[in-house]
Write the C-alpha cells for this entry.
Amino acid sequence: MPVCHGQERAVRAFLLALVFVPAAFWPRAFAQGLQAPLDCGVVASGSFSSAFSDFYNLTAQPGDSILIRLLAGSTDPTFKPLVTLVDQQNHVVTARPAPAAPLPNTIALGATFAAEFDLNVGGSYRIQVQDNPVQAQGSYSLVYTWLNKPCGAGSLSCGIGVSGQIGQPLQLASYQFQASAGDILSARLARIGTPAAGFDVSVLVYSPAGQLLPNASGDIGSSGFRRLDVPAPTDGPVTIVLFDPANKTGNYAISVVKLKGQCGNSSLSCGSLSQGNIAGPLSENAYTVSLAAGDVVSLRYATTDPSSALVPTLEVYDPQGSLVQAATAGFSASRAIATTTFTAKATGAYVVIVADSGLVNTGNYAIYMLRLNRPCSTSPAPLGCASRVDGSVSGLFGTSQYTLAASANDQYLLRLLRTGQSGSFLPRVDIYDGQGSLFQTVSTGTLTSLTFSTPADGVYSVVVSDGFDGSQSGAYSFSLLRLNRPCNVAGTLACGAVVSGSFTRPLDSAVYTYNAAAGGSFSVRMLDNTGTLQPALLVYDPQGIPAGQTISASFTGVDVAQPAAGTYTVVAMDAATHPAGGPFGIGLVQTVNACAAAAAQGQTITETITAVQPFVSYSIPVSSGDALLVRSASANPGFTAQMDLYDPAGARLDSETFGISRKVATAGTYTVVVGASAARTGGGYSFSWQLLNRPSGAAPLVCGGSATASLTAGNQFRYYTAVANAGDLMRLIFTRLTDNFAPQIELFDPGGTRLAQTSDISQKAAAGGNYLVVVSPSTSAGETGSYNIAYQRPNNPCSPLALTCGQTTLRQVAFPGQLDAFTFAGTGGDQADIKLTPRTGAYFPFVELWDGSGNRLATGSSGVLLFTPQANATYALLVRDRGAVSTGSYRVSLADDTNACPVNDTEPPVVTLLQPTGGEVIPGGTLFHIQWQSDDNVGVATHDVALSADGGQTFATAIAAGLGGNQQSFDWTVPPDIAPSRKAVIRVTATDAAGNAASAASGLLSIIGSGFTPNSSGTYTYDAVNRVTSAALGDGRTIQYVWDAAGNLVQITVSGQ
C-alpha cells in the first residue's frame, strides 16, 4: 500500500518500466560509458556529462530474482536516466509487472526507477544506465539486491531481534529466515534510535522462489512499528528486503518469530515457572504449550530485573497460528505481575510469545502457567464440606491448588488468614468454576472472609497465591464450610440452654443447627469465657443464605426476626488476627414465644446471671398505645444487667442497662432478654415492668398523707398512684431515711408521660386521673434503704388544719418526712403574722405559703412568716422539717398585725407517759421513777399524778398534785404498806392556763405491798416500751404476758407448775 510522508514528499511508484534499447545505440554506449562490476546491496554512483551510457555487471544463478533501484540527481528537471537489464545473449530481460507489491498492498519503492526481475538463466548480466534525454547532464545512484538468496550475511534466527542501519540514500538491506512449509511467520520491524527527519522503513517479504508473498509489504509509518504475518508456502529461506522509500537514513530493528511451528525448544508446563531474557530490541521468546480443547489457561508474567525498563507483553496463538482472544490484567503501580487468561478452542500446540511492550527494552522475565479447569497436579488436595488448610507459597508465582466438588447452589464460607507475620505477603484465593472461569477472589493482610454460592455442579479449583506482587513468600491458613448442608455439626441449639466449646487452632469454628418454626424469631449469642477470643457469629437459613442482624454488647450475637421454618446453621468463630484459642459459650433465646414464664406487672423479680444461665427472658403482654416502662437494678458490685426489648415480631427495639421507656405501637407479647452488660461478669439483679398509663401493683398515695417504705434487695421498685384533678398542684416530697441511699422519684401523668424526676416535685396536673409515682434506684446499681413520700395539693389541701386568728396550735411530728397542712383566711390588706416555734426534738419547721391557684408565695425557716394578702382569700401552709428527717413537736400561731384579734385557747395539752407503760412490778417501800412528756399550744400550767387500783376506772389515790408545767418526771416513794394489786394504773394529767386538760395512763401494773414475801426469785424480760413480756421464776415456772396493739394486757400464761 502507498506510504505517505507529508505533502512535500511525492510518492514515486515505479515511474519507469523497463525500456527496450535498440542495438544501434549499444556501440556508442560501450564506446563512451563506464563498465564496472556491481555487488549485491552496494550502492554505485555515476554521472553523465559526455558519455551516453554506463554498464554494471553481475552474475546470477538460474532462478535468481533481483530488485533494482535507481535514483537520479540533477538540476536539469528533464534528466531521467533509462535502466535496462541485459542477459549474456544481449537480450533485454523483462521486468515483472508493476507495482512490486500488488494491490491492495501497493508500496512506493521510492526511486526514479525500481523494478523486479526474474533471472531464469544463469550467467552474466549487465545493468545499462542510459542518459535520457541524450546529452542531458546529471548524476545517479544504483543498487540491487537478491530476492531469493542472501545479500551478504543477513540471516535471522527465530525470535532474535537484529539492529541495522540505512546509512545512505537508496540503500537496500536484506535478510533471510529459514522457514518450513506451513509455518506462520511474523516479521516485525521497528524504528529505533534518533533517525533523520522523515525516516521511514519499508519491508517486503519474498518466498524462497523470490516471489513477493501475499500481504507481505508495508512500512513503519508514524507508529514506528510494522508487523507482517505471512505463511511460509514451502520449505526454505524467505527473504526480507528493507529500504526507506524517501531515501532517508536511520536505525531500525527487525525480527521474525513463528506463530505456528517450532521456534526453538522452549515450552511451558502447567504449574511450572519458566524464566527468559529479552536480549535485544524487538526480540521475542516463543513457547509452545500443549492444550486440550476447553482448557482454561492462566499465564502470569513479570520482569525479574528491577533495574530493567522491560515491560513484558504476551501473545497467544492457536495451533493454526491465529491470535487467541485473551483477557489481560495489566501491570499497575502496586503490582509487578500481569495475567493473561484464555480458553483453548481446539486441541493442539499453542504458541505463547513474550516480548517487550516498548519494543526496544531488554531484561529478564518469568512466566508461569496454570490450568484452571484441570489442576496441574494429578492429585490436587481435595477440599471437603468442612475443611481447614495450612499452607505456604514461596517465590515468584508461588501457588497452591485445591479442588472442591460442589453441587449447584451450595453456599460456602471461606475464611483466609495470613499466619506469617513478616514481609509483604498477602495471601490471595482465586476460585474458578468447572469451566475455568474466575468467579470469586479474596485477599487479605490479616484475616478476611468470603461467602459464595457455587452456580453449578462440578469440580471447582481453588488457587492460593501472593496477592501483593506475586513474588512474596509466606504462610497462610484457610477454612471452608458448607452452609446449606453443614457437616461436622457440634450440636443442636435449644431455647434457654447454653452449649460450651473451645477453639484450639487458628480458623477453628464450631457449627450448630437450630430448628426454627415459621415466624419463631430467635437470638443467638456467643460468649468469650476467658477474654482470649474475638468472637464472631454467623447465622444462615436453610438455603445457606446469611440471616439476621448482628448485635454486639458483652457478647456477639445475631437476631433473626420472622424466620421461615427450617433448620438454620449457626457458625461460631474467633475473628482475632493472631488467634490464641480458648473456650466459649453459645446461648439461644426465643424472642417470640420466649422460653420463660410471663413476668407479673408492677412486681419486682429477682434473678441471677451466671455462666450456666447467662440470659434470662421475660414475656410482657402489652396493648397498643400503652406506655411501657422496664427497669432493672443490679445487686452486686462490678455487675450491671443489660436489657434487650423485642417487639411481638421478634425485632429488637431497645438495649439499655437501667431503664427502657417506650410508647407501644403494636399490641402483643413483648420479650425482654436480660444478661450481663460486661463480658465475663455475673450477679444478681431485680427486674420490673409497668404500664405507665395502666399501672398495676401500685399502692395508693393518699392526698394529705404519706407512705413510709424501703427499697430492699427483693423489692427495688415501688409504685404509687396519686389522684389529682385537672389544675391541681401536686406537691410530692421524698425524704430519705437511710444514709448512703440515693433513689429517684418519678412522676408520670395518666397517659404515661414523665413529668418530673426529682425528690421535690411541684407539678400542675393537666388532666384529672391517676398519676403514677415510681420510686427506684437512680442508676443501674441497686439501692437499699428506707424513705418517706408525702403527697399534698396546696391549691386544694387534703385534711388541713384550719388556723384561726389569735389561735396557737401544737403539732406532734411522729415520723420523718411528715408534711402538715394548714389553711387560714387572709384579709386583703391586713398583714398576717404566722409564727412557727420548735418545741421538742431536733425538729425545726420549714414553711411554704400557697394561694388557691397553686402558686407558691413564700417560704421560710426563720420561725416568722409575714404576709399581706391583696384580697380576701384562703391560703395554705405546708410545714415540714428543715432537716427533713427530724421528729418532735412545734407550735403554729396566726395573728393579724393590722387588726388585732382576741386570743382563744381551746386546744388541750398533749401528754405522753414514758414510764411506766404497763407490766412493771412496783414493790412497796421503794422509789419508783415516773416520766412523761407534755406540751401545749400555749403552755402547760400544772401536772397531776394519780393511782388507780381498779384498772383505771377510778383514780382514788393522788401520787402528786400541782406539779409545775415544765416538770416532766416525778420520783414516787411507794408506801411500804400499799395494798397489793395486779390492776394498778398510773395516770399523768397536764392542764393549761385556760383549763384545758389531757391525760395519759399506763397499762396494768403489779404493786407488791410491804408484807409480801416472794417465794421465788425471777428474771424479767421487757419489750421496747418497757412492758414485761416474760418472767422466768427460780422455782421453774415461766410466765408469759401478751399485750394487744392498743397496749392492753390480754393474756397471762404460766407454765412449768
User: Anything to note?
Assistant: The helical segments are 26-32. Confidence is low (pLDDT under 50) at residues 1-32, 101-106.
